[in-house]
Structure formats: structure tokens, C-alpha cells
Design brief:
The structure is a single chain. The chain is an alpha+beta fold. It has 3 domains: 235 residues, Rhopdopsin 7-helix transmembrane proteins; 70 residues; 149 residues, Histidine kinase-like ATPase, C-terminal domain (Heat Shock Protein 90, 2-Layer Sandwich), CATH 3.30.565. It has 17 helices and 9 strands. The strands form 3 sheets. The chain has a 5-stranded mixed β-sheet with strand order 4-6-7-9-8. Strands 1-2 form a two-stranded antiparallel ribbon. A two-stranded antiparallel ribbon has the order 3-5.
């Protein structure tokens, strides 16, 4: 046995001589690193990247366990053997990391010649491991070995590996565009590996050079930085296509840190309290993980629905433009044929043919108008319409609408009345689109009113201008009122009264009024017959 050793745990370890930092530095890091790598591996077991990451953490964990044996084993033979073989695992950490970086950057396996090169670099370790070129002597008094020339080769390889990996990161990063997300992943991984391998190598070299092996306790802490940044990459960029890793890493990291305290707690009360905390963290952690998992699943489902909705909107937009342009083209061609018949282009025609041609022309005009309504609604919805906002006389627009639509109303036997109080009715807006609003509301009332009258009104209330169109038409039921001003929204009786109803007219009105920061709404008439549509705009 080592001279200062006291048989303890399993009659093989003596934890009393081990520094406290050993348990905080090694055991929790081993658990966290293995948890992350196994988690990634089981989620992507066919991925070469995940396999290599697992090999890195396994090599590191065996190396760290070997260090624990060096510090705590009570038998000379066990200590000497652990010193003898540690070179094997230290080299494997760097070889597997080099391999991992190459695969990560290029998204494919490396060429066979590079695998042979890595094997050739590793071969001297295997050959000289049991010789005095690795361990040249053993200090029985201190119960520790003394390294030989093989370790100079190891440290040169470690430093060279770090330089090569940083160069690979730099070269790949500069070949990508600045906004590329993979470039950000490269920077994060480069920082994580530099901290991990840099601290690992630097502390080992310092410990061996100065024979102060407490330095070695600090080195593995770099693995925490590497694991943390790797977890961040997984959360931020979905690297390895893993989800939920941040919460699980947090929970099991706490479990590992609290669990490591069992190795050096001496007071029974503290041991019990630590045990209660340990169990509580496990139970609470499981609930937290399940809760976060459920939230992630809900967000993913919502994201899928959003993607599907976007695709459907694009398809609908393409379909609307295809159909409307094709339909409008057909209407336009037949319109010119009917117009040609009426103006004598095709020779003299009798009155019956002329009557039918006139009906066809009117039908085409209505079809083109319907197509324009749908196209306008689509353009308004996309936001491609540019409004030319300037001060205009809204009363003038309304007067034009009344004069244009009066003949249509009289043709149906309807009276058209006005209720416009004297005064100025200036608003800030686009004259073309506000004219579309007044035209649409008046025309709608005419279409859906069989008898009675249409009343068009304007009045000024405080700093608001209110335009309304009142009719004695079919009215709007309470259930239909909710669908008004929506895409395709129309009353249940609208198609029966107007077969050309699309539901896009009032939808366009609302979008235009919203763009002018106004309000539009409908109210049933107090008399119980018909309804009134209102527009409210800011006066200037």
C-alpha cells in the first residue's frame, strides 16, 4: 500500500487524502459529459458525429476516472498501472476530437488516408506504453510515477491538434456568408473546444513540469464550457436535431453536483439533508422535463400549422390570380364580341340578336366587376396597394357616387335620398379607394333592396366624419352579422337575392377603411326593415 494510505471505500480507495476539488471537478463533469453524449447518441445513433462525440466523452471520462484512481487508490500497483495507461486515453481524446471537427465541418466522413494518418500518430502510444519511455520510475514515498519522453510527444501532438482545429474552423467559417447560421455554430463550437482542450493541455503540462498535480484538477473544468456551449448550439440551432436538452442538462447537472457531495460529507445531519435535496431535485426535475417537453411539442405542432397555413395562403394566392386572370380574360374577349355585334362590326342584326348581345355585354361587365373585386381584395390583403394620401373633399366623392348609382336604383324602382348636412367634409385619404368604399356600400344596398328606398348620409360629429348608407332591404340576421367584413363573409340570404355575391366587397371596404385609420360597422334599422352601414373617418 502507499505509505500514507488508509483503507476506506471498498477497502481500495482512500478519499481522505483526495482534495475536495477532485469530486467537484471530475465526478460531476463525467456525469454531465456522458449524459449529453449518450443522449445525443441515442437520438442519432446512426450519425457519425454523435458516435464520435460519444467516443470523445468516453475517452475523457476514462481519463478522469484514471486520475481519480491515481489520487485515491491505496495500492501501489493500482496507482502505478493507472499512471501507465493514462497516456492512451489522453491521446484518444484529441484524436477523436480532430476526427469529430472534420466531420462536423464537412458533413461527411474523412478520407481513408487521414484515418491512416491518425492511426500512425496513435501507434507510438500503443508501442511505447509499457516501456520506460512512458514511465521511467516510480516514487514510493509520494506514491506517484515520473513521466518520460513519450509525454513530450503527447503534448506536442495536443498543442498541434488545437492549432490545426482552430485553423479548420477559421477556414470553413470564412468560406460561408456572414448571415449563415452554420457560421455561428462554428464559432460557438470553436470557442467550446478551445476552452476544453486548451485548459486540458495547459494544466497537464503545468502539473507535469512543476510536479504540482493540483493543476490537473482545474483542467477538466474546460469540459463544462464545451458541454454548455454544445447544449446552447442544440437549443439555438437544433444541432444534432435534439430538443429539450437544455432543461435535461440543467436538471441532471444539478443532480450530479449535489450527488458528488456524498463523497466528502462527514456529518450525518448534512448527509440526510443532502439526500433529501438530492431526491427532491430528481422528482422536481422529472416534472420540469415533462412540462417543458409538452410545451415544446405544442410549439412544434403550432409551427407545423403555421407552415401549412403559409403554404395554403401561397397556394390560394396563386390560384386566385390564375383563376381571376383567366376568367377576366374570357369575359373581356366575349365582351368585345358582344360589343362588336351591337356596333355593327359583324353586319346588320335583328332586334332579338341585339337584345341578347346587350344582355351578354351586361353579364360580362358584371363578371369583370366581380373578378376585380376579388383581385382588389387579394392585393389589399397582401399590402401591395399603395395609398396616395392627401386632403380630399369626401362630400364630393359621395356626390359622385350618388349621381352614378341613381340610375341603377331607379331602374329597380327604388328611391335614392340624401341626408347631407351643410359643411366641409375634408379627410386625409386616397380618393380612388375611398370612392371604391362609397360605391361598394351604395351598390350593395341597391342589390339587396327589392323595394323602398336607399338613403345616403353624411354628418360631422366632433372631429369625425360619419358616412352611412341606409336601406329597406333584406337586413342582416344576428348570426350573419359576425361574418360581415370578413373574407368571403356574406349573409345566408345574400346569394338568393344576388347570385353574383362573393363576400369580398365588404371585406375590401374594411381593409381600405382600416388603412385610413377609420371604422366600419353595420346596425339593423330600428324600424325592423333593412340595415345601415357606417363609415367613420377623421376630419382634417
Amino acid at each position: 500500500m502507499c505509505s500514507d494510505a488508509i483503507p476506506g471505500f471498498l477497502n481500495f480507495f482512500d478519499f481522505s487524502i483526495a482534495p475536495t476539488l477532485l469530486f467537484y471537478s471530475y465526478i460531476p463533469i463525467i456525469i454531465i459529459a456522458l449524459f449529453l453524449s449518450f443522449f445525443i447518441f441515442f437520438k442519432n445513433r446512426y450519425s457519425l458525429q454523435s458516435k464520435l462525440l460519444l467516443l470523445i466523452t468516453l475517452s475523457f471520462s476514462v481519463w478522469a476516472f484514471d486520475q481519480i484512481v491515481q489520487w485515491t487508490a491505496i495500492y501501489v500497483s493500482a496507482v502505478h498501472f493507472s499512471w501507465q495507461i493514462i497516456a492512451l486515453f489522453e491521446m484518444l481524446v484529441f484524436i477523436f476530437t480532430l476526427y469529430f471537427v472534420a466531420v462536423f465541418l464537412n458533413k461527411k466522413d474523412i478520407d481513408f488516408k487521414y484515418k491512416l494518418l491518425l492511426g500512425a500518430v496513435f501507434l507510438p502510444i500503443v508501442v511505447f506504453l509499457p516501456t520506460n519511455l512512458n514511465i521511467n520510475s516510480f516514487d514510493l514515498q509520494q506514491c506517484q510515477s515520473n513521466y518520460s519522453f513519450l509525454w513530450e510527444y503527447i503534448y506536442i501532438f495536443e498543442v498541434s491538434s488545437i492549432v490545426i482545429m482552430m485553423y479548420m474552423f477559421y477556414k470553413k467559417s470564412h468560406s460561408l456568408a456572414k448571415g449563415d447560421s452554420f457560421r455561428k455554430q462554428i464559432v460557438i463550437l470553436a470557442v467550446g473546444l478551445f476552452l476544453f482542450l486548451g485548459m486540458f493541455t495547459a494544466t497537464n503540462i503545468l502539473g507535469d513540469s512543476l510536479l504540482v498535480y493540483e493543476f490537473n484538477l482545474i483542467g477538466p473544468i474546460g469540459m463544462v464550457a464545451f458541454v454548455a456551449l454544445l447544449a446552447f448550439m442544440i437549443v439555438k440551432f437544433k444541432t444534432f436535431n435534439i430538443k429539450l436538452i437544455a432543461t435535461q442538462a440543467l436538471v441532471w447537472g444539478l443532480v450530479a453536483l449535489i450527488g458528488s457531495q456524498f463523497f466528502f460529507i462527514k456529518v450525518t445531519t448534512n448527509f440526510i439533508l443532502n439526500g433529501v435535496t438530492f431526491i427532491g431535485i430528481i422528482i422536481f426535475g422529472q416534472f420540469l422535463i415533462k412540462s417543458v417537453k409538452k410545451e415544446i411539442e405544442q410549439k412544434e405542432e403550432l409551427a407545423k400549422l403555421n407552415i401549412n397555413l403559409e403554404e395554403l395562403l401561397k397556394q390560394r394566392e396563386s390560384l386566385v390570380h390564375l383563376v381571376t386572370h383567366k376568367v377576366k380574360g374570357s369575359f373581356t374577349r366575349s365582351k368585345y364580341i358582344f360589343a362588336g355585334i351591337l356596333d355593327g362590326t359583324f353586319g346588320d342584326i335583328n332586334e332579338e340578336v341585339k337584345k341578347r348581345a346587350q344582355q351578354g355585354l351586361e353579364s360580362d361587365d358584371m363578371g369583370i366587376e366581380t373578378v376585380d373585386v376579388v383581385l382588389n381584395a387579394a392585393n389589399l390583403e397582401k399590402g401591395t396597394v399603395k395609398y396616395e394620401m392627401k386632403t380630399i373633399d369626401f362630400k364630393e366623392l359621395v356626390d359622385k357616387t350618388i349621381s352614378e348609382k341613381k340610375a341603377l336604383a331607379e331602374t329597380k324602382g327604388l328611391k335614392m335620398e340624401t341626408e347631407i348636412a351643410p359643411g366641409t367634409y375634408n379627410v386625409l385619404g386616397d380618393s380612388f379607394w375611398l370612392k371604391e368604399v362609397s360605391n361598394n356600400l351604395v351598390e350593395n344596398s341597391i342589390k339587396y333592396t327589392r323595394e323602398g328606398k336607399i338613403t345616403v348620409g353624411l354628418e360631422k360629429k366632433d372631429k369625425k366624419i360619419e358616412f352611412y348608407v341606409k336601406d329597406t332591404g333584406i337586413g342582416i340576421s344576428p348570426e350573419d352579422k359576425n361574418s360581415l367584413f370578413t373574407e368571403g363573409g356574406r349573409g345566408k340570404d345574400s346569394v338568393r337575392i344576388n347570385v353574383d355575391s362573393t363576400g369580398y366587397g365588404l371585406y375590401s371596404v374594411k381593409m381600405i377603411v382600416d388603412a385610413h385609420k377609420g371604422k366600419v360597422w353595420m346596425e339593423p334599422n330600428k324600424e325592423g326593415i333593412g340595415s345601415t352601414f357606417f363609415i367613420e373617418l377623421d376630419a382634417v
